Protein 1
Amino acid sequence: MYDIVIVGAGLSGLSAAHNLLRRDAKLKLLILEGKDRVGGRTLTQDVPAAGGVDRWDLGGQWVASSQTHVMQLIEELGLVVYPQYTKGKKVHHMGGPRAKISHYTSSMPSYSLLVLLDFVQFIWKIDRLSKSVCVEEPWRSPDAVRLDSMTFSSYIEQHVWTRELKEEMAVCSRAVFGVEPSQMSFLFFLMYSAAAGGVVQLLETSPGGAQEFRVKGGTQQLSERLAERIGIERVQLSSPVTAICQGDDSVEVRTLSESFSCKVVINTCPPHMAAKLQYQPALPADRQQLSQHMPVGHMTKFIVTYPTAFWREKGFSGEIVARPSNSCPFSVTFDATSPSGSPALVGFIAGLQAHDWSSTKLEERRDAVVSSLVRYLGPEASHFIHYVEKDWAQEPYSGGCPVNVMMPGMLTYFHPSLRRPFGRIHWAGTETATEWCGYMSGAIQSGHRAALEVLARLSPHTLSQEERKAAQGPAQPNAQSDRWSYVTGYSPLPVALTLTAITLCATLLLVKPQISRDVIGQVIAWLPARVTKRVVP
Amino acid sequence: MYDIVIVGAGLSGLSAAHNLLRRDAKLKLLILEGKDRVGGRTLTQDVPAAGGVDRWDLGGQWVASSQTHVMQLIEELGLVVYPQYTKGKKVHHMGGPRAKISHYTSSMPSYSLLVLLDFVQFIWKIDRLSKSVCVEEPWRSPDAVRLDSMTFSSYIEQHVWTRELKEEMAVCSRAVFGVEPSQMSFLFFLMYSAAAGGVVQLLETSPGGAQEFRVKGGTQQLSERLAERIGIERVQLSSPVTAICQGDDSVEVRTLSESFSCKVVINTCPPHMAAKLQYQPALPADRQQLSQHMPVGHMTKFIVTYPTAFWREKGFSGEIVARPSNSCPFSVTFDATSPSGSPALVGFIAGLQAHDWSSTKLEERRDAVVSSLVRYLGPEASHFIHYVEKDWAQEPYSGGCPVNVMMPGMLTYFHPSLRRPFGRIHWAGTETATEWCGYMSGAIQSGHRAALEVLARLSPHTLSQEERKAAQGPAQPNAQSDRWSYVTGYSPLPVALTLTAITLCATLLLVKPQISRDVIGQVIAWLPARVTKRVVP
């Protein structure tokens, strides 16, 4: 009989366990993991490189100074970060089939004046909107239902003027979420941006931006070192959970071959994976609908190692943003030279492109990647040492990367069940985070939150009064309160007709004062004397 | 060792089996069903009524003369249909919190002139669009990516002028699909309408419309009689399939306690249920994504039986269309008096309303339904005999009703995997139909199609050359062919600027011909003599 069984030994599960044991070392705790390793969507591997062999991240790799939870953990575990290399020319190739390759060194691509204006107005609009979103309870944001009833793509169609920027936003959507702009709710995009501190933070390598730092030795170390601190004996690998059965006093967590009793479960599976488990009693309807409205992105990451960082020598930073085409699989690449100096490039085949290219052979994809690198950085790109890639859609117990997105209607209708415990089951995972949701930092934050909830249940004495209050979460919304008042929006036609009538009258008054004077005179004459007296004393 | 194992004993699985055995009686065939009954989303039950007890459908209940597959089966099985009762006043209560209850007898609600105009223009637009959609390969329809990048809600926002019609369309969406307009792709709505022969067909009780006929004795009889014809010993109930493992020469289908070997599997589970099975090897990425983009609707159906059909006596047809509010759970009701004359009303709590009301107690829902009936039909409505309801979201191995919808991005990106066999697994179920998709008729059509595919594999001699060709399905699309040419849409700003410039010039020419003549004269004077000669000979 355990106190707590945690499903998943990724960053959220391990952070939860770490926090639980730090507060109450007596807790009997077990972590069950389907994979044969810890780390979830982080994975650090040896790759043949200039210096013989070196380590690279094939999963999550960047952290930022603004990501307090992961930065704190990095420091605590004695790990070191170093900045993403960004010096030199960046390659930019967007804007239709006949677009030219352009180079720039500032933080802003070399847009034409029109596209630049478009970019500024669009980013201003979405950033202002994202600031109005309530991350904890997004359905309470102003205009939530309308924003959640449209796709990100619909908003782009309505508010972006230029074809080039439309394409650019699609590339951003693919690179950040692993999905097309048509495949997520616009309110979700805003909430995700808000959780990161702003739209620009998601895209930038500048201080605070999501691509600011990398971790020396790889990000999987975070999970490995956490597992060591927790105690390896508490982490059982290759044990995929199949069912969670709740009784009156305990929960039974079943794997293919074993069964474990406990008081509380923390389920850290990404929503589409959590939906595959058997639950007894069945999950509530809104939680079931929630997981049906949160598909996972598709991302294939590749590392290409080189004998020399030829791009740096030629004045390139290694950053490429490429328009989608049948010849170039990737959306973006970056310099990935290791801290010990082994030159490498990292790139992402994302969203629909990942989907299209996943049906081709590895060699074909590799050749397409390398010949695109040759096109953008020069012939030296063809003399690589090693090409390695990871298609996260094929990874068992992940099934996709980097994050589960939310479809229209999910945030306003089913979101309350995202973090709400179901009986003895508590939910964690980066999708449930409110700060840097979808990132490693979010995973850690969600683990801390779930640990608080469980401690409030099992060891309330270890918590301060504030923490006990925080662990209860927001008051459960009265779902039916004024739901149906949303449905009735304003009606543009009567408004437009009224405005037109007013404008016409005003024009008439200005252009032909005589007519209006006549009309007013006649109206006054027509009105009964009593009324006239009051109006024109 | 079986030839075929069919997962699911609903209408599609049973129709497939029926067709298979009719063509080749030697086939060894087994149907595995999770529920303890056949019929899937059809269910006929005894309900206390005026005549003691009578039978009503708590699942799918209507058929139409335009639904050839189900009408043919009804005839073949010796069943009888009778028309939906529609005589008398219909109750219509839409259009904002202060809207009045109105009555009408025609097929069109008593709209104001403005709403009527709006209705006509909107239905004309979406019907014309739906006629342009290719049901078999929707991604090939004109403008498919744009139509699939928006929700039905976004299209309504852009093209409906009046608040009342917006509300009306939301009620239609709930009643037909069990979801809000924000929760489905607009292209899916169009394809679904096209598969039914037009938008109006979905909504009407008139000849050919989806609500035209009911089946005497209930629709579950279709499945029961099919099961008898196939042989009850071939249908194994209460045997939920958990895993499908494909080897080189055979497939192993596992339930909780047994395992069956076969050559081919027909999987008729609705997509969100099919996703819960274990597959070895894993389903292809696009099929996995498909099921993540097809949530199921939410529908609760209720039957209220009465001593007399008091509404008929008062001149009502029993049809009510009600605006959503906190007091009225249902969207629509109809007369449901049985062929033997037991008076009853049937109604639907659908979409978000089903979701909201599912958390209340049965008694509370019943009282709210009855008091709404009192409000719309008179005080006699409170003297009911029995109230019975079925929340399909709670039904094991269904999890929702009436149909799985498609989210934006699904149709253009993942749809090809909807009917494409995966190794020895073939797909059926009403969601895979191309005629009356989502209806009983569609389920039967999909069963026929899957049977053809399997016969082409196992007993090709039983098929005509045409059938063999049809069984291959459409040529697999070359997914990458010109996918990325879609991305580049037109750019409205340059077009608008050009049009403005032309308009200004034209206005100038008309208003001040002298100015234009001067300008043209100067331009000609400025041009070199040679060029001028060619232009003005």
Protein 2
Amino acid sequence: MTNAPTKKHRVTVVGSGNWGSAISKIVAENTKAHPELFHPEVKMWVYEEEYQLSPNHPAYDPAKHSQPEKLSTIINTLHENVKYLPSIPLPENVIATPNIRTAAEDATILIFNVPHQFVFNICNQLDGSCLPYARAVSCIKGVDVTPDGVSLFSDTIGKRLGIYCGALSGANIANEVAAEKFSETTVAYNPPIGPTKDYPNGLVEVPADLPAVDHAFLKSLFHRPYFHVRVVSDVAGVSLGGALKNIVAIAAGFVDGLGWGNNAKAAVMRVGLLEMRKFGKMFFADSCKSATFTEESCGVADLITSCNGGRNHKCAKLSVQKGKPIEEIEAEELNGQKLQGTSTASEVNEYLKRRGLEAEFPLFTAVHLILKGEAKVENLPDLIETL
Amino acid sequence: MTNAPTKKHRVTVVGSGNWGSAISKIVAENTKAHPELFHPEVKMWVYEEEYQLSPNHPAYDPAKHSQPEKLSTIINTLHENVKYLPSIPLPENVIATPNIRTAAEDATILIFNVPHQFVFNICNQLDGSCLPYARAVSCIKGVDVTPDGVSLFSDTIGKRLGIYCGALSGANIANEVAAEKFSETTVAYNPPIGPTKDYPNGLVEVPADLPAVDHAFLKSLFHRPYFHVRVVSDVAGVSLGGALKNIVAIAAGFVDGLGWGNNAKAAVMRVGLLEMRKFGKMFFADSCKSATFTEESCGVADLITSCNGGRNHKCAKLSVQKGKPIEEIEAEELNGQKLQGTSTASEVNEYLKRRGLEAEFPLFTAVHLILKGEAKVENLPDLIETL
């Protein structure tokens, strides 16, 4: 007979942008809902900054808020991330924590939700402060593609910190999730058993006095009535979906810019979905499952969401309609932010070209060529035709 | 050494609505493009009616067109189906033929493209007039679901006429295809070898002096630079996709009517896609392939098109927005035409209920209950939640 665990998991969210805050809200609702598994308190690491509360904010009090304050203080007082997720009440058990090492040091579950360009630096700051048996989940969209290979942020985090890291990705526009509009997501978690290349000494086991971290546990951590979760084992597929769909969203934007109609858009999305899957199967043969792309929220559903809206689709559409390079539209429309799809298209093309595989991915290749001005949008059907 | 075929196929399209005319156009372009396989002439059966050409038509000549004329005469003179596919030039090798038996009697390839309620009557008219070795393809969307079983129109046609019938279905809004806007489709063809239950004497073989009717041949018949074709063997899957997607389109319309956003819509589409596939696998286990639903134009792409537009989606959305039963919206919006999704939802539910399987298809069941007023749209997430 197994003894029931006597301890509980402590959860920390590393990141407090709009998606990080939305995930903190969900997780804090669940730590309260499942007291048998979790300490209620969820620490949320906040990159500290000074913030001046607007006099229009309903909680504004001139006696308290006339000067800029620390963002973490405002979050812990008003229970709202007034800067990055305004107007959404956060549960009071979300505790904004400006020191990243303090935030992480007693966490048995770490959820990473930061812009991808900050991952390396954050791991450097965290180095040595995590519990050796902590488990992590990366909500960071995308993968790191260089001509030499494709690396997953979950792997980067896991290797750098010496802990195991899974992934979460889905059709998840953060503001819709935060507003409790119905959404689904996919969580991937598949820790290795025994020593592996990445974990030569094997993973440090989760102590027996803590609840086991398995698929059912992760569902309890993330699933809400308005945020349905499926947990799978394919970390590579879940991570790749969130990156490669942006290439397809650009193609869908091109087609919408031309006014080609619903058939054409659906066709481009179908072809793109199969290329996403083929890429996964070709380069992560050991782990990538077909079903992750064609059945899960992180695959087909995220693709649908991204092709019906989102900045990659929008900028590609405008670029065709206005007859301008997409970089110009990006500068006009995104207020300094960068399109992920254009860089992913270029990185993926570089990777494929080096392996002589461009022809195997006609849609990815066509998007890259069109973005470079070396092919015409109007020729997309010819470029992806298979005879 | 095999002798090259000395004869050529003759193609007839049974039907001349907007989709029938668009398919006739495509097929006639291909009979000209592949003279080694086909006689160029494509007969198109036209349900004869009198039609008064508008004085605004560019070809209107008061000396010729002041009185109503036979529609078949107008089509053969102006090379345009002025009533059902106006403004689209038809190739001159499309020959409108008002007598259905004359249209079919020398055809080696019959393409059925009529409204589904006319299938039985048309087969009765054709009985005994088809070549025994003719092959057919049904472009009729949907399936015939009764509490006793699901029958495919392709099977109904094939059995009634004693010939083999495959199917064509995809993300194909007819007017977009006719305007040569890029589209894809799926053709399914899998004639039995030897005697079967449906063909106790086996199929009559296509004579050796005719080109073989195989997947490559069917691609030559339907594929165009603007209409990409994939040929598969799963006739049941291709046919089911075109019917079941209408239930999902209603769910997507509900979600859009509530203004729930892109995440929710993508979630409902993903759940619906998997229920479509499950239905196919459960009831056509021998033949239905998973991939037909998740990978082909007739599955995921047609679903996407139908959830981004189309009458089922539109009426469901308006019904939520206006707080009216969908039947009222149908009467207001469709000018006497009927929604397929509502009847399919009810027929599929009847079929599932009799087998005690409603809980296995929570989205299909939820749509039916909402349409009947026995569940609320707002509860859709709860109704489809799996714990």
